[in-house]
Design goal:
By secondary structure, the chain is of the alpha/beta class. It folds into two domains: 297 residues, Alpha-Beta Barrel (TIM Barrel); 26 residues, no CATH class. 40% of the residues lie in helices and 16% in strands. It contains twelve helices and twelve strands. The strands form three sheets. Strands 3-4-5-6-7-8-11-12 form an eight-stranded parallel β-barrel, surrounded by eight helices. A two-stranded antiparallel sheet has the order 1-2. Strands 9-10 form a two-stranded antiparallel sheet. The chain is globular, with a radius of gyration of 21 Å. The termini are far apart. Bound molecules: flavin mononucleotide. Flavin mononucleotide binds next to strand 4, strand 5 and helix 10. It holds the Pfam family DHO_dh. This is Dihydroorotate dehydrogenase (Fumarate). Keywords: Flavoprotein, FMN, Oxidoreductase, Pyrimidine biosynthesis.
Length: 332
């Protein structure tokens, strides 16, 4: 079965991408993912805060990495302790050793000089760049339009710094997701990751303090990204990667039917190890074998808004039907 796909203009052997996670800072882990058949990998993010706290002398970071082979020595510290130089070394080593595209990731919330670091990621060999725009608009006086502009500004300055494809890992918190998606593409994004997973805090009732335990996603979480992949597929110009809630091949198949060009997973890999890549791909092939097709391309987007004749389940009618159905099923 032909599973090849195109994402951000990159040819992938299959649509499965290991999204950014700390394990992707380890070369052994990246090699295992490659051996298990992953389509591409996203490295852990370099954060705006790390870059602003550092030297800011991006020219000398780049020169040091290019000239001093010791930068390619084993990386120390945890992935989020990775200094920007080590990050560049990670890209170089991953590019030298992996057979699949290596996507670097930048995580920030406002445009300033840190975005120039993107050029170093490109120089180090990254095949593409993922921009994680994680911003919580805590100021009730900040209008939605200003928040949207903030995203476009960061994208604009990263876009100016690099020629490689750029994807935006966007949150689902816009009043018009479709409009924002189109504006991001017009603003220079070659693709969108649907969606960034924001981590909300909880309250610890014993200690009376905020707790922020990181819970891995479950398959229940696919419905929001699934809806938006289906609504956007074929209607915005950039590539679409679905992200969130992959536990088994079932979710991968659903995202592809909705119209995703690629499907990302972190939780499944963190839970089960790189071996799950093989399981997910085998499950995808098994499902495709039940269909009268020879390639993934033939089923992609067949359940998208654009391709379905009947849209009821994607709009308010679905809500009404569900509530009515629930009411009659539970009436005594
Ligand atoms: C421990 C951990 C670390 C992560 N680090 C990053 C990161 O550096 N950059 C990023 O964009 N996303 C990061 N993510 C988010 C994942 O890339 C992914 O978007 C999220 O886990 C949802 O996908 P999933 O349901 O497949 O886990 C991280 C997630 C986890 C669980």
């Amino acid at each position: 079965m032909n599973l090849t796909t195109s994402y951000l203009g990159l040819r992938l052997r299959n649509p499965l991408i290991a999204s950014a996670s700390p394990q992707n800072a380890e070369l052994d882990h990246l090699r295992w993912l490659d051996d298990a058949g992953i389509g591409a990998v996203v490295l852990p993010s370099v954060f705006q805060e790390q870059l602003e706290a550092g030297t800011n002398d991006y020219a000398s970071i780049g020169a040091a990495c290019a000239e001093v082979p010791e930068f390619l020595a084993p990386l120390d510290g945890g992935p989020y302790g990775l200094i920007p130089e080590s990050h560049l070394a990670l890209i170089m080593r991953a590019k030298a050793e992996l057979s699949v595209p290596v996507i670097a990731s930048l995580n920030g919330a406002s445009a300033s000089h840190w975005t120039r670091y993107a050029a170093l990621l490109e120089e180090a060999g990254a095949d593409a760049l993922e921009l994680n725009l994680y911003f919580v608009p805590v100021d009730p006086l900040e209008p939605g339009a200003a928040v949207e502009q903030r995203y476009l500004d960061v994208l604009g300055s990263v876009r100016q710094a690099v020629k490689i494809p750029v994807a935006v890992k966007m949150p689902p918190y816009f009043s018009s997701i479709g409009n924002m998606a189109s504006r991001l593409v017009k603003g220079g994004a070659d693709g969108l990751v649907i969606f960034n997973r924001y981590l909300q805090p909880d309250i610890d009732l014993q200690r009376l303090e905020l707790s922020s335990e990181l819970e891995l996603s479950s398959a229940r979480e696919i419905r929001l990204p699934l809806l938006w992949i289906a609504l956007l597929a074929g209607r915005v110009e950039g590539s679409l990667a679905a992200s969130g809630g992959v536990e088994s091949a079932e979710q991968v198949v659903k995202y592809l039917l909705a119209g995703a060009d690629a499907v990302m997973t972190t939780a499944a890999i963190l839970r089960e190890g790189p071996g799950c890549v093989h399981t997910l791909l085998a499950g995808l092939e098994d499902w495709l074998d039940t269909q009268p097709v020879e390639s993934l391309e033939q089923i992609r987007g067949s359940m998208s808004w654009l391709r379905l004749k009947k849209h009821d389940n994607y709009v308010r009618a679905n809500y009404l039907q569900l509530i009515e159905g629930f009411g009659s099923a539970h009436r005594s």
